[in-house]
């Protein structure tokens, strides 16, 4: 058991990352925002807070978290953003992103990403979501166990090569990171001093966590023609003596690069920014055009049962498409649902919400509102 727990990947097993690290940059002091699980850390990436959440709270996730995000800050300053999703967008766990005004910011990855790259039409700020479900014909590419890591490698390769061929390549900084660590061991101590609570909201009892320490380190790769080959980014030089690179460094750096007015919380005001990695005076012309092809890591059966994360995504979509009003919601909805059924449910339900929101927008609805679909009548009705 100990050998399995302490095991890792050889560089040749993840050739895409091996090439990117040697050609661009890796950060060896990037920490998850809190010593906890997936969703709270994901919330920090775009909002620099989890509003007191340290667990995957299904009820709050499907209702949508209320805090302001970096997407809204960009929009207020006149900058564009785009979220490229593959089945359904987990960024809609932020309630504000469900508003009618943002509905056109969601774009289906397979249909739009490569063409937008080719035409030089990528927004100022882009988030690319993975395929979180796994089937034989359509494997998961999100690196969540037990999904084949080679699929994640192929996905990063696809994204990089599309960006590299884009006329916007010389304006691009690509960040590849992970929300949390999947374990508790690290030879580098977790920062426990000088870390500010984002908004002075403590976790509820019995946890009472004060959000005054970071989590374990996670991988973070940075790719741009403005980065020297083989760069290793260590800890930041500020803005405070105790500052570190963590997930809130993303909105902090976005604020700095785009000269936005305000920080989201005290945490991104404290977090180190990584704009300093762009050290060149001119973009490189020797960046690889293509990356190595990864080999399949292992043969395995596709997922049969939904993971907790997948159940949360299904339940969130049920909130969008109106099934939340049925008596099977939320637990019975996913109780016996297979992975293929979940994929179809999420694809159809998410598209239904996007289409209804788009129709509301065309009909002149208040764009600050959220479309509410209800299925408790013979025909759906739309409430604003």
TrEMBL record:
Domain of life where this protein originates: Eukaryota
Gene3D superfamilies referenced in this protein's UniProt entry, alphabetically: Alkaline Phosphatase, subunit A
InterPro entries from the UniProt entry: Alkaline_phosphatase_core_sf, Phosphoesterase
GO annotation, biological process: phospholipid catabolic process
Keywords: Hydrolase
Single GO MF descriptor: phosphoric ester hydrolase activity
Family membership: Belongs to the bacterial phospholipase C family.
PANTHER family documented for this protein: NON-SPECIFIC PHOSPHOLIPASE C4-RELATED (PTHR31956:SF28)
Protein name, entry field: Non-specific phospholipase c3
Organism, scientific name: Thalictrum thalictroides (Rue-anemone)
């Amino acid at each position: 058991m100990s050998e399995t727990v302490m095991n890792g990947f050889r560089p040749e097993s993840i050739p895409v990352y091996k090439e990117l690290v040697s050609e661009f940059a890796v950060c060896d002091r990037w920490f998850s925002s809190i010593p906890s699980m997936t969703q709270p850390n994901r919330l920090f990436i775009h909002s620099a807070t989890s509003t007191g959440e340290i667990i995957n709270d299904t009820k709050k996730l499907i209702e949508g978290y209320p805090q302001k995000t970096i997407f809204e800050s960009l929009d207020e300053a006149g900058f564009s953003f785009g979220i490229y999703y593959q089945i359904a967008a987990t960024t809609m766990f932020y309630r504000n992103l469900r508003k009618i005004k943002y509905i056109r910011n969601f774009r289906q990855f397979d249909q739009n990403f490569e063409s937008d790259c080719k035409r030089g039409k990528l927004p100022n700020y882009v988030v690319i979501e993975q395929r979180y479900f796994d089937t034989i014909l359509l494997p998961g590419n999100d690196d969540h166990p037990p999904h084949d890591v080679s699929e994640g490698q192929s996905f990063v390769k696809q994204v990089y090569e599309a960006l590299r061929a884009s006329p916007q390549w010389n304006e691009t900084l690509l960040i590849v990171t992970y929300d949390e660590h999947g374990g508790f061991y690290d030879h580098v101590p977790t920062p426990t001093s000088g870390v500010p609570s984002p908004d002075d909201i403590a976790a509820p009892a019995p946890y009472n966590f004060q959000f005054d320490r970071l989590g374990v380190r996670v991988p973070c790769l940075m790719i741009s023609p403005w980065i020297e080959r083989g760069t290793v980014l260590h800890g930041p030089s500020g803005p405070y003596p105790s500052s570190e690179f963590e997930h809130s460094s993303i909105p902090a750096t976005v604020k700095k690069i785009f000269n936005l007015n305000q920080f989201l919380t005290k945490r991104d005001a404290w977090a180190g920014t990584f704009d300093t990695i762009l050290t060149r005076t001119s973009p490189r012309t020797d960046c690889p055009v293509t990356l190595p092809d990864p080999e399949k890591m292992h043969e395995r059966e596709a997922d049969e049962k939904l993971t907790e994360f997948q159940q949360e995504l299904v339940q969130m979509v049920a909130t969008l498409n109106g099934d939340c009003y049925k008596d099977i919601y939320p637990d019975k909805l996913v109780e016996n649902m297979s992975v293929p059924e979940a994929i179809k449910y999420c694809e159809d339900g998410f598209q239904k919400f996007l289409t209804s929101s788009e129709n509301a927008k065309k009909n002149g609805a208040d764009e600050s509102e959220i479309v509410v679909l209800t299925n408790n009548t013979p025909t759906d009705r739309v409430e604003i």
